[in-house]
Structures are given as C-alpha cells and as structure tokens.
DNA sequence: GTCTATACGGAGATAGAC
DNA sequence: GTCTATCTCCGTATAGAC
C-alpha cells in the first residue's frame, strides 16, 4: 500500500468513475461533468487522456471486457480438466464479477442489479461507427465462441444448441437480477439457480 | 382506411414516434426535438399532451405494456384449454409483437433486435420516482405472476422453479436477438428455439 | 499533467398568436 | 389544439496558465 498522498492517476480515477456511473445510470444519461466530479478531475484532464466522451466510453468497455475475460479465465483454470465444470464455468465467473481490483467503491454492491453492461451499452450506442462498438462485439463473440468450444469439449451431440442454451441461461440470469431489483418490496424473489440448470442442460446434451 | 387528409391526432403521432425512437436509440439518447421532427408536431403540442419528456416516456411504456399484455392475452386465448400450450404462450406472443396496429413504420422490422424495452428502460431510468417506473414494474410483475400461474395450471411440481426457467428462456431469447444483431457479418447466428426449449422444460417439471 | 475559466451547441421547456 | 419564436440551462469541449 502506497501512502494516500500518492493518488491514483487521473486516468484510472476517470475509468473507475465512468464504470460506476455509466453502468449504474446509463451511458447517455450520465454527463461527463458527473464523471469529472466523481473522479475529482478537471475537464481538460479528461480530454488529455481520451478523445472525448465516446473515447471514455470505449475505454470503459475495453477495460470491463478485459476484466471479464480474465475472471472467466480464472474460473476456467480452477476447473482443471473437469469438462463438465468447464462447460458451466461462465456462471462461476459471474459470481465473482466484478471483483473491483482498482476502484473499490462500496456502492458496487448493487452493480449486479444492472444486468449485462455490454447488452445495455448496445442499446444506447447507435451504430458500428462508435469507438466502443468493437467491445460490444467482443463480448458477444467471446460468449458464443467459448461456450461452443466448451460444449464441444464436454461431448455435446450438438455443441451449437447447447451453447445457445447456456447463453440463454447466462442472459436470463443477468436479466433476473434486474427484474429482482425492480420487484423489491414484493415478496423476496426466488433465486435463479443458473449454474444448476446449466449442469442439467449439459447432462441432457451428452446423454 | 380514412382519407390521408384526416391525419392521426398529434398525441398518437407523438407516441408512435417516441416508440420508434426511444426503443431503437435509447431513451436518454433521444432528444424531444427528434421525436417532434419524426412526429411532425410542434414543441408546444407535446407539452399540451404530456407533462414533459418524462411524461412522454411514461405514456410510451404504458401503451407498450398494454399492447404487450393484449398480445399475450390473444396468444393465450388461441390455446384454448391446452395447459401445455398455455404455459409456453408467452413465446407465441413474442413472435407476433409488436404488431404495430397504429403507426406502421417500415423500420419496425428490426424492432426485435433491440431486446426488451422494459429492461432497457430500467437501466436508463434512475429511480422509483420516475413516472414511467410503474410500467417497468408492471412488466416484470406480469411475467412473474402469469408464468407462475400457468406453470401451476400445467401441473408443475415446483411452479416457481418452472416459472423461473420460462422467464430465463424469455429473457434469453430477447437477449439472443440483440447479440445476433451485433454479430451480423459473421456466419449467420444459430436460431434460438425458445418455445421448444420451454416445452421441454414444462415436460420435465410435470413428469 | 493538471488546473481555472470559458466558449459553444443542443436539449428541455415556455410565451403568446392563430 | 396547434403553431412560430424564443428562453434558459446543462453538457461537451477547448483555451491558456501553472
């Protein structure tokens, strides 16, 4: 631990603030001045590090994608050679993400309630011209390709079909968190056992 | 068909324009002036019918919720007494929605590519104070309550669990459309047979 | 690299006539 | 009910000093 006088560099603070705000309030609804205030950074400093708001959005999603892939890598490594566990490792990764290695804001607790950051950004970002678009694509491509590969390794008779089911469980689990957040105040929501359902799906596809 | 001189009332044109733009570009990213241009309506007319942008957003989601519920009602009615078909009727409704009874903009074809309008709005709308919040809640509550009821009618041993699986398939199917839209240019996406998977889930839960 | 101060455009909203 | 014209403020971005 360095002394508190050695502050986190402005670029990191900007990305941490952008992560919190863009994900919790939405990208378009969050002004750069809100990010600046949260990061305690002056406007000109933002434009010294990023091309503008679009560049900041792209950097935010780039970092999030890298961390998400790393979390999945670690979950995969923890599975060893167990092809069944590997096939459902995406749900282990989901349980530990985001781990907040840098920022560490306490409000990140309900981060999970906001669903998939990439799907949410896909709705807000107009077209392929946006500098953040490659990272939206990267997330969907990673999920599609890895789940297909893992389904194949697990011995699925139809890897594409199993991968599709696993992806639906993944997206369904994330959506369930958002819906649970909306319905607070009602009777507590039924927990959604995505990993168990995924294990059952793998079993069906390899029987 | 009425004569073209009898134009659709301004309020309807505003809601049609809001539906197109809010859903395809996002709510916060869409300015009221864009809605006004699309609807060919003057600013003051908007404020004569709605309290402001927030009121327009609420009215848009209210109407969308009503139409969605009607579509599901009709799909249910078409099932008759077949409890198995009724349990998966939400996917029949999904296949016919939105039917565009009023507006009828040709660009509504890729409307499906944008995922669930209520989940998307939930990410963009800050808190329960927003006038549109009740409609976000209504969508999740309708899905939860109806799916549970239908799962129970179908004879599921654990209606809550089956309802959760059906909801995951529903959200998974909508998310799959968004991901498919992102990955265009790649090999064509594998179609996601949500209704068939739902039928299988019902069968497992009633065996 | 980071700051203060400011320019500029667009977005939400209103006034008042028809 | 609908229009034209306008007002204000906020959000994005830049200029120039330290």
TrEMBL record, chains A, B:
Gene Ontology molecular function: any one: transcription cis-regulatory region binding
Protein name: Transcriptional regulator, TetR family
UniProtKB keywords: DNA-binding
Superkingdom of origin: Bacteria
SUPFAM superfamilies hit by this protein: Homeodomain-like, Tetracyclin repressor-like, C-terminal domain
One Pfam family hit: TetR_N
Keyword presence, Transmembrane helix: no
């Amino acid at each position: 631990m360095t002394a508190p006088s050695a502050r986190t560099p402005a670029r990191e603070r900007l990305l941490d603030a952008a992560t919190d705000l863009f994900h919790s309030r939405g990208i378009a609804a969050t002004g750069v001045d809100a990010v600046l205030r949260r990061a305690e950074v002056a406007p000109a400093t933002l434009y010294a590090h990023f091309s503008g708001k679009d560049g900041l959005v792209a950097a935010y999603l780039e970092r999030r994608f890298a961390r998400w892939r790393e979390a999945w890598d670690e979950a995969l490594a923890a599975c060893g050679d167990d092809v069944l566990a590997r096939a459902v490792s995406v749900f282990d990764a989901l349980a530990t993400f985001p781990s907040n290695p840098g920022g560490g804001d306490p409000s990140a607790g309900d981060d999970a309630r906001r669903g998939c950051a990439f799907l949410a950004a896909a709705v807000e970002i107009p077209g392929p011209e946006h500098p953040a678009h490659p990272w939206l694509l990267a997330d969907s491509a990673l999920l599609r390709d890895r789940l297909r590969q893992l389904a194949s390794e697990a011995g699925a008779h139809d890897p594409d079909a199993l991968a599709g089911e696993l992806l639906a469980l993944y997206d369904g689990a994330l959506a369930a968190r958002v819906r649970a957040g909306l319905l607070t105040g009602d009777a507590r929501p039924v927990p959604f056992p995505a990993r168990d359902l995924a294990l059952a799906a793998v079993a069906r596809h390899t029987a």
